[in-house]
Amino acid sequence: MSEHAVSIDVREIMRYLPHRYPFLLVDRVTEFEPNVRIKALKNVTINEPFFVGHFEQYPVMPGVLIIEALAQAAGILAIKSQGERAENELYFFVGIDNARFKRQVVPGDQLVFEVTQLAVKRGIGKYTARALVDGQVACEAEIMCAKREV
Description:
The chain contains two helices and seven strands, in the order E-H-E-E-H-E-E-E-E. It is α+β, with helices and mostly antiparallel strands.
């Protein structure tokens, strides 16, 4: 077991992120190293609301939602690294570069998100992110998130 192994459940995740069902796409955090990296999970089930229309005969998780889940994991890394999120601040997904999709994600898969912080300047964080299924890369991208007062 990694020295940075943790078990952060969905109730604690909801303290960091403003997202709620059906848009909260991270179920659990399994590793966390402040200002360095996070590893998190999403269990993909046939009950996901997007499977109704994407696609009825061959359900596939939309790639944009995998990217969103990676951005949520990056947000948890950013917020938890600072301690907590102030009531008047949100972290917004502000950029994506070099996104690639390498494998379809279907019901029954478990997505493993690996996000590593590259830099943080003036409230904007840049991260390298991968989503894996059974050790195979399903998606990878560079993601940017910005902290803003609302």
